[in-house]
Every structure is written in structure tokens, then in C-alpha cells.
């Protein structure tokens, strides 16, 4: 591994510094090593790929939910028809 000899000054807020320092410590790295690794492994296309997958899953779930709702509404409509037939007084019965 080559020795680091270049600097990249980055200004952050106190809160950002505290957050980065805490995350680095939790990962067992110095803040500098943590930032180097995060920068090297960050790939914006990964975010786009994950977002596309999430959107596809939401669309699929939405289609399934819409179908289920339609099925339930069809079932309710059929049940209402059956109940309406039962509620009609039978012609052979005499009203009291």
C-alpha cells in the first residue's frame, strides 16, 4: 500500500465532524481512514440502481394491491346481490 502524501481540505460543521468521528471510531478506523474508504467505495450509480429496484418493487406491490382491492370489491358486489335475493319476499309466502 502506498503512503498517503496528498491533502484534500474539507470543511464540515461541528455536528458533521462529531458524526464522522463517531462513525469512524465505531468502525475501528481513524477519521481520515474512514473518509478515504468511504470516498473510494462510493459509487453514485449504486444509488441509482438501488432506487430503480425500489421503484420497481413499489410498482409491483401497487399492482398486486390494486388487484386484491378489485377482487375484494367484486366479492362484495356478488355478496350484495346474493343478500338482495334473500331479502325479496317469496311470492308463495303470505304476508302476515
What can you see in these coordinates?
The protein has 96 residues and is mainly alpha-helical. It folds into two domains: 9-42, no CATH class; 44-91. The protein is built from three helices and no strands. It has helices at residues 14-27, 31-41, 44-87. It is rod-shaped, with a radius of gyration of 32 Å. It starts with 13 loop residues before the first helix and ends in a 9-residue tail after the last helix.
Write the element-wise H/E pattern from the N-terminal end onward: HHH
* Count of the domains: 2
User: Which sheet architecture does the biggest sheet show?
Assistant: none
Task: Please bin the fraction of helical residues.
Answer: over 70%
Would you spell out the secondary-structure blueprint of this structure?
Elements: H1 14-27, H2 31-41, H3 44-87
